[in-house]
């Protein structure tokens, strides 16, 4: 049976554009990063790759395990997936240098903080963080959450100073506030895209080859679904399964999809219209007609994967209707979380807003949902998929 492994990176100096009281006072401040590699057979390959990549960087030292990183570093960051954070901190946490600062970059802070509290020595400060964007996104201007869980003000300011080199917008939250906001902004968003992908798979479809899925809002749906499915599975599984607030959101999204689909199937137009427009009023009531939309037509059409038809194919946009209905039922105003939103969430909110703040388009969608049965089987597969993902998370 193969075991897991960890490698470490130690940087003995740091550069940052920020001006602070620490300028010139942290030249000997050692930053350590513990990375997790599983299965262990990839450990040597990963270690060799890291050594090769940083061979010409004299200020960076590659160490073979997390114990050495923990003993040498003044600030240690666990760059480990949420599902593995417990066993990695249990292994290397007790070796932490006295008086050091420890944090993590997991997307779900509940298991991370629990591991730190359980396995780190009492004389270690805990200041965690989370960059709210993917690894291929430029961090400049993107939100970065800082969590002062158990630390002196001086330790917290040191972490602020270190991370200021990223150029991100820093926001201070508690661990529970972080998990609530990430659940509100990401859990349902991920569920929607995962459900779309599963439905297309069940129907043996490449959506960019079908006129219904080309142009406008559909471009965003397809591109973001492909992006999610191209990422590592643990990014989404960790949030859905380990975040204590995510199950409720995903369950409610599946219920909204099911309820709306039943209203469409039964031809209950007045009930469907009332429910959808009530949800829209709740979510978008704070937006004025003069407020600029987050997404415009020229942006929506920019990333088309197929040839746009001369006349758009009708679509009831069940996935979008359900997400706004879900937000309303959970009393979530998505604009309240914009300071800590991911690029993915802002795009999804943008297409939802594009639909609901266009009364003519929304009426067309409702009429299509009741009168057009062309894609009813697609909607059925989407409903199955949404409920399936919810059950996977619920019974984990």
Automatic annotation (TrEMBL):
Residues 26-294 form the Prephenate/arogenate dehydrogenase domain. One of its GO terms (molecular function) is prephenate dehydrogenase (NADP+) activity. One of its GO terms (biological process) is tyrosine biosynthetic process. Pfam families: PDH_C. Keywords: Oxidoreductase. Signal peptide: none annotated. The keyword Oxidoreductase applies. The lineage of its organism: Eukaryota, Fungi, Dikarya, Ascomycota, Pezizomycotina. This is Prephenate/arogenate dehydrogenase domain-containing protein. The keyword DNA damage does not apply. It comes from Monilinia fructigena. It comes from the Eukaryota.
């Amino acid at each position: 049976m193969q075991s897991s492994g960890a490698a470490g990176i130690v940087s003995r100096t740091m550069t940052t554009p920020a001006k602070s009281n620490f300028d010139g006072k942290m030249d000997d401040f050692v930053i350590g990063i513990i990375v997790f590699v599983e299965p262990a057979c990839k450990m040597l390959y990963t270690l060799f790759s890291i050594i090769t990549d940083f061979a010409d960087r004299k200020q960076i030292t590659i160490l073979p395990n997390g114990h050495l990183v923990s003993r040498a570093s003044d600030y240690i960051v666990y760059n480990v997936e949420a599902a593995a954070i417990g066993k990695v901190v249990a292994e290397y946490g007790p070796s932490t240098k006295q008086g050091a600062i420890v944090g993590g970059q997991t997307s779900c802070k509940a298991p991370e903080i629990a591991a730190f509290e359980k396995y780190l020595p009492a004389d270690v400060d805990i200041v965690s963080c989370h960059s709210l964007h993917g690894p291929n996104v430029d961090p400049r201007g993107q939100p970065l959450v800082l969590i002062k869980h158990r630390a002196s003000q001086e330790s917290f300011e040191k972490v602020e100073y270190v991370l200021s080199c990223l150029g991100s917008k820093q926001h201070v939250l508690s661990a529970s506030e972080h998990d609530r906001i990430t659940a509100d902004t990401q859990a349902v968003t991920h569920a929607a895209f995962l459900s779309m992908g599963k439905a297309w798979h069940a129907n043996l479809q490449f959506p960019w080859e079908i006129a219904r899925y080309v142009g406008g809002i559909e471009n965003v749906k397809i591109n973001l679904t492909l992006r999610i499915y191209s990422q590592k599975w643990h990014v989404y599984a960790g949030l859905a399964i380990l975040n204590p607030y995510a199950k409720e959101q995903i369950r409610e999204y599946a219920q909204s999809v099911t309820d709306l689909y039943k209203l469409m199937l039964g031809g209950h137009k007045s009930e469907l219209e009332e429910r959808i427009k009530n949800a829209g009023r709740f979510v978008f009531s704070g937006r004025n007609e003069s407020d600029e939309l987050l997404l415009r037509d020229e942006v929506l059409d920019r990333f088309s994967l197929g040839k746009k038809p001369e006349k758009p194919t009708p679509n009831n946009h069940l996935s979008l209707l359900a997400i706004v209905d879900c937000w309303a039922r959970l009393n979530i105003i998505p604009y309240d979380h914009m300071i800590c939103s991911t690029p993915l969430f802002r795009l999804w909110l943008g297409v939802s807003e594009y639909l609901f703040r266009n009364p003519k388009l929304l009426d067309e969608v409702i009429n299509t949902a009741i009168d057009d049965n062309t894609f009813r089987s697609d909607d059925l597969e989407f409903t199955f998929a949404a409920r399936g993902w919810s059950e996977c998370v619920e019974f984990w």
